[in-house]
Amino acid sequence: MTVLGSKDLLKVKFSGLAADYDRDTLVNLYEPIIGYTAMAIYFSLWSNSLVNKYGDVITHEQLFGRMQMAPGRFVESRKLLEATGLLKTYVKTSDVCKKYSYVLYAPKSPKDFFDNTLLYGMLVKCLGVEETDLIKAKYIDNSIEENGEEISEKFSDVFKPSYDDEAFMYVAAKNEKAVGRNTAKIKNCFDYEVFFKEVALKSDIDEKNISSKEMKEIERLSLLNGVNEKDAAQVLVNVYDGTLPKGKRVDFVALTKEFQESKNYKFVSSRKEVKKPNLMTGDSVLASKINLMETVSPKDFLSILQNGTVPARSDVRLINDISRDFNLPNCVINAIVDFVLASNNNILSRPYCEKIAASLAREEIETTIDAMNYLKKVSKKNRLEEKRAQAKEVVDEVKPIINKKPKPVVEEDDVSWTQLIDEISEEDNVDGKA
Fold this sequence. Notes:
The chain is mainly α. The chain is built from 19 helices and four strands. The protein has helices at about 20-50, 60-65, 70-85, 110-115, 115-125, 130-135, 155-160, 165-175, 190-200, 210-225, 230-240, 250-260, 285-295, 300-305, 315-325, 330-345, 350-360, 370-405, 415-430, and strands spanning about 10-15, 60, 85-95, 100-105.
């Protein structure tokens, strides 16, 4: 995890050209996805690239001061710009400081935006179908007016160019390229290009015959089970039936089974090499554990926790059901698995896992750290409630005895039951900040 310091330097440039109408595209199509904070950062960096034409370098502290923004919020919003292809971030580290280079990219044209399944889908997810259709309608040409027969002249008929002319020979010999309009490719964990290339090598399946809904499910299952694109392509070939209607040609029951039984682990280790992470041993171990949860699939993570052995089919099915039913990121599922095993005597209980998954889904938790903090808070609350219940049972048992006997004189070393309950109540009221 890279920590951004206020004294770290930054330099901004715009890759290619941008136009005024790009601002409307950014506000109408991108802002609903990335939010106003990320949008403000984009416009501020854009302005900075125009002012600092000669590559002036400033500190992040100067940028934060101008924007009145905290470093943590800047980093989180910067990720949104990077994920949507509006920004690429580079860093050089020295003994003195880090120097960041921020390269801005123009937004996609409205046509390219709506042709992009990820961007179009995220807009629908953020705004809903009805609102998205209203926005899209602004960019659709519904004109059906008949213009008549075209009588426009051709370039060659008007200018009659001779390609043997010195001017054209000069141009043909030049290799320099003028600055154009650049848009960045959106990075995705599952590389569709590699997947379909492998499918084409192994079969005659046309990618157009696989629906976008089927591809999203293939992507989800492959990431969940730690299956790479090439292996996923081979499994698809095995379970594909081209005689069925489009949208029903992939046997997902068979595909899921093959993915779950895949033994192509990237993190399988011997018993001596793998040690179960311990939250209480220090910050470095905790950081490594968080990084592990963020980067490996739930099936691989479960394998690591049980010393590199293959997870039970019932456990793998449970992980798949949690992913499908609660739409949680893999890193959050890893946190659930780790928490349940640690607090439930190494038993991955389905009801317990589903109850926790439902709570995390309601809280809209998407990162490992947030999941671990939430589970830690809930665990502490449950312990306090259990302690309170146990104390109440003791008081209920003792109260009849106290009522039957005269109230004893409390010596300095004695502790009354009332005082005991007061102490427990005071403990319950302590703020549980980590």
